[in-house]
Design brief:
single chain; about 130 residues; mainly beta; seven-stranded mixed beta sheet; four-stranded antiparallel beta sheet
């Protein structure tokens, strides 16, 4: 049974930093692309970042480029989203998700992801 559990969310000040983690179980993540998707109140889900199963391809939404970094530790079946210099507009529920995609491909489209975590709230405010 595939299970994804996010952690690390909370309240962070603008300009600070936060690291989200996603612990995966029930499958071998080596062959799966990983995505981080967020949803702010009243808005549609938005693909924030993704990384291919090979680790060779990544994607970042324009709004987070240069500030967020995605990474994966296949040995630990754990994935990360490092959020530096967050802004109030980054406030949202953040979900990790995964899908079996070609090894050098990942998707910024939420609909391409098959398995999802329960989400973790990130609030950026002073």
């Amino acid at each position: 049974q595939v299970q994804l559990v996010e952690s690390g969310g909370g309240l962070v000040q603008p300009g600070g930093s936060l690291r989200l983690s996603c612990a995966a179980s029930g499958f071998t993540s080596d062959y799966y692309a990983i995505g981080w998707i967020r949803q702010a109140p009243g808005k549609e889900r938005e693909g924030v970042s993704c990384i291919s199963s090979s680790g060779g391809s990544t994607y970042y939404a324009d709004s987070v480029k240069g500030r967020f970094t995605i990474s994966r530790d296949n040995a630990e079946n754990t994935w990360y989203l490092q959020m530096n210099s967050p802004k109030p507009e980054d406030t949202a529920v953040y979900y990790c998700a995964t899908a079996f995609l070609p090894s050098d491909y990942c998707s910024g489209y939420p609909y391409e992801y098959e398995y999802w975590g329960q989400g973790t709230q990130v609030t950026v405010s002073s």
